Amino acid sequence: MGAQFTNRDFPIRVSHAHEPKPPAADLYRYWRSHEEEGYLERHWPDELDHDAWVSSIRKILVRQFPEFVDAEIQYFAKGTFNRLYSLTNPSWEKAYIFRVSIPVEPFFKTESEIATMEYVRRHTSMPIPRVIAFSSSDDNELGYEWIMMEMMPGKPLRKLWATMPDAARVELFAELASYVKQLVALRFSKFGNLYFADVADRVLALQASLSVTTCNGIDANMDRDIGPGGSFVLGRIVAQDFFFDKRIYYSGSRGPFNTTRELVDMRVELLGQRIRNLAPVEGEAWYCENDRELDRNKDRVYELFEQLKTLVSRLVPPDNGPEDVGVLWHDDLSEHNLLVDPVTFRLTAVVDWESVSIVPAYETYDARPAWLSDRDWRPTPLVQLARGVPPNDEFLVADKLRRVGEMGPARLAYHAIVGPLYDTSSPEARQRVKNKQGIAKQLEIASFQHRPWWTAAWLAENGFGGGHAAQAAKPADNALADISNQNRAADQIHGVGKHYAAANS
Known about the structure:
Elements: H1 3-6, E1 12-13, E2 31-33, E3 40-42, H2 50-64, E4 72-78, E5 82-88, E6 96-101, H3 108-123, E7 131-135, E8 145-150, E9 155-156, H4 166-185, E10 187-188, E11 193-196, H5 200-203, E12 232-235, H6 240-243, H7 260-275, H8 289-296, H9 298-315, E13 326-329, E14 338-340, E15 347-350, E16 357-360, H10 382-386, H11 393-418, H12 427-443, H13 452-461, H14 474-477, H15 479-482, H16 490-503
Parallel strand pairs: 1-7
Antiparallel strand pairs: 2-3, 4-5, 5-6, 6-8, 7-8, 9-14, 10-13, 11-12, 13-16, 14-15
């Protein structure tokens, strides 16, 4: 691109400031029942007309960047929330990506993602795309928010892993660890998301303050460049457990949160609203098979939820501990979002920074990347059990053991560099962290909402619930097991908890 383009101050916000407005009433159009697993998944409700989209993208770009008049615009890929188009020209030094997003969290998701990427660029050396311009408003020819950024070199790790020598795998994750160590060294006094300071009035709760906690200057990495005089603010959280499906409409705080207990209490509140606001009838807005199964067993589901809610006050103290320090955590450092040079196997980029939040350090599991972790490998969903699919717990255990051998050396190299994020030298600290991680896992979208029987097994295996501990396994042999219309023995499903506990011990 020409000098006029490269000398601009990026990123450029193309959209104009506008008054806060509630989410549109028709956001259900962007969600549908997942064909196999039955939960709500994001989707594009319109038929994709590439010619029309390319024309609209060109109009948007040329109005702001005349240099793009000769751009070759082609459909590139589709992600969970996005459609991507490539912008190229033989005379350019770089190629670009134009990404269009569906409105799952209007304004906030785009604004936070851009600010987060810029914050990481300024305070670490991690290789990430540079954002050129963005619109956090859908008031444009496309009718959607968009981001334009540099196209990074390399291929997704998933395409290269099978052919990589063991030594290259270890070196790759050692390299990633050196960048992650910089990222998690940045500490924060609250939990939420990063935004540019010029939108503070939109993203801070009414009672929130711009003041920061700096530990009397002892920790220079605490709240760096945040608050008065800084370029950024720590504001409203943008995370799936706060906006997924109908949660965007529910009342309650979106932060920033001062304590882990505040954060967890709000997650519990949103989960409670969600399971009591089901759409079990096919054809109605927000319908999904998972809601249908929850509704069929709602009495037991509500009972389980109350047991989980009661546990929070026992397992999550009102005051923060060392494990609760805020860290900016990219929770999807996966085989899709790590780009690698296909020849040297060096890391070329970390992509997909949407919904990257500041969370308590214990929730990062010592900053473990998704690709090296088993945390996202989940048991059979509720809907598949209802269809007669047997539990997959034995498969999960076997595959986790296989991955120990495959991932073990890379895991060791990674954690040797990143190191622990907090002190767990005492048995009390280790138990406290285990309890908090257990609660956090149950509150994930893919846990209680989609697999309440798994929460029942977790409660029983850990002896939670006092006199109700034995009752916690009831879904395995009564109501929730009956959804499969099979007479499973109690220990068949209850064994899921045993296998899961053994695999994570």
